[in-house]
Amino acid sequence: MRGKVYSALSSFHFFFKKKYANRLRVLAYHTVPDEMAFEKQVIYLKSQYNIISIENLQLHFRKNMPLPKNPLLITFDDGDVTVLKKGLPVLKKHSLSSCLFIITGLINTSKDVWIKRIEAKEMKEGKSYLQARGVVKNFKQISNLERVGRMEEYPEVYKPQLTIEDLKEMSQSGMFIANHTHSHPMLDKCTPEEISEELTQAKEVFDGLQLPGFYVFAYPNGNADEQTTKILKNFRMELVFLFDHKINKKNMDPLNISRIRVDSDTEMTEFKAKVSGAHPFLFHLKK
Ligand SMILES: [Zn+2]
């Protein structure tokens, strides 16, 4: 069924590609489990779009430098090691820039993000993946203070994370290292003090690494609200990315850049429907 829907959509993808021509598309990936599947997507993207870097986008907003036709930016959230092991080699092979949003508190550790700790324990206790995701969903809706307290019931999960050396290698290979907070809280459930603390801690890590990416930010889970936006402005953020499954409008706001959600192992008909804008269009119609 799902396959049929996407192949039906893909017959519209030329229409949507044209309808949204020259609007910036930003793809939001998380992991790269399969290098070959990812390369197939990359080859397709290269044939249809002009892949830009964060630096291109900065120059666009700072100096009004025009973006190329059909611009597309590749981003990854959360800093999974597969992005280094399987994603970066493909991007390097095709000489492409990209951007990685890291959770600074996980760098150089063997700890997993809190969401995975909940999933692991709930599934160990017999819940299905979907049920465990339901628990995660509830945790995303409570105050940050309560969530942090309740996390004590969930033991750490062992997972090797990117190291400082990895980040240096990645940034030297055209992957811009950017900011996804220190511990990935839901910022709309945080107090102003908690938000400032998250950003201050992240800034210390970026400063320590001598990387400029603190000022390029993606909201964890895409949770943006007025309070957070105000604080981000006080911290002088330059580019802020959403997770809203949309293609950007012609006149973009650098502090509200839309992104399309994709997976690196999705098969091509589904992938094309998402990137063209056909799927995002229908997705928002349905809501
Ligand atoms: Zn994230």
TrEMBL record:
Q: What class of enzyme is it?
A: hydrolase
Q: What is its main location?
A: secreted
This entry's Enzyme Commission designation comes to: 3.-.-.-
What range(s) does the NodB homology domain occupy? 70-287
By its UniProt entry, which InterPro entries does this protein fall under? Glyco_hydro/deAcase_b/a-brl, NODB_dom, Polysacch_Deacetylase
Keyword tags? Hydrolase, Signal
Alphabetized GO MF terms: hydrolase activity
One Pfam entry for this protein is Polysacc_deac_1
Give compartment(s).
Answer: Secreted
Query: What SUPFAM superfamilies does the annotation carry?
Result: Glycoside hydrolase/deacetylase
- List the protein's name: Polysaccharide deacetylase family protein
Naturally occurring in which organism (per UniProt): Autumnicola psychrophila
